[in-house]
Write a structure and sequence with these properties.
Elements lengths: L6 E3 L2 E3 L2 H13 L4 E2 L4 E2 L4 E2 L3 E3 L6 E6 L6 H10 L3 E5 L7 E10 L5 E15 L4 E6 L23 H12 L10 H9 L3 H24 L12
Parallel strand pairs: 7-8
Antiparallel strand pairs: 1-2, 3-6, 4-5, 6-7, 8-9, 9-10, 10-11
Helix pairs in contact: 1-3, 1-4, 3-4
Amino acid sequence: MIKAIETEYNGYRFRSRLEARWAVFFDALGIKYEYEAEGYDLGGVWYLPDFWLPTFAGGLHCEVKPIGGDFRKAVHFTYVTRLPIWLCDGSPDFAAYRWVEAGLWFGDEGEEIPILRIELGIPSVSKIRGERHLYGLPYLYKSRIKLEHILMDKDLFFDDRYAAAVRASRQARFERGETPDAATVTAEGEAIDLAEWEQQEAQQARALASFVTALSKEERPIAAGGGKT
């Protein structure tokens, strides 16, 4: 088994370069994070989420894996703790990602049955609404969707700062002791022209609403999010 390369960045020693690239991505978007903040005992199974994002989407854990990685322990984490988790498969990209959250299903006699919902969303940071959240896309449920591959214009969903964050994560160099400066990464992300960014956000919100409305009217949407897992 090939061992991942441990990588230092922003005062953390990450277990893999992939995790470090996600940290660069978070810094470029201004998303606060803590690495391996707390471990959990899942009934005899020890689990340590990769990231804790205290201010994003009301507080969200993240698990980072290469594309095709095994997220079963992360999903079990949500089932046991009822805490949501973002499944970050592969490097940061222009894509929609899965997140898992707990829910309830009501049985025939009205009893509450705990379930999990696996939803699909796009990471977004909006200064207009003052929220840090995942855009939900309930009609697009697959493990990982490249939006530009299903006849969508990615500019409707990803603004300049998101593009800058993806670029920063891809261009980060860690060889021979090199490491990006976290403060510089964050500052470059914040340097995106605010007025232009707010205009982009408003246009994206309208386009997204129209797109989801159109999908909901189709007789056979790609798939429906939610339900039992």
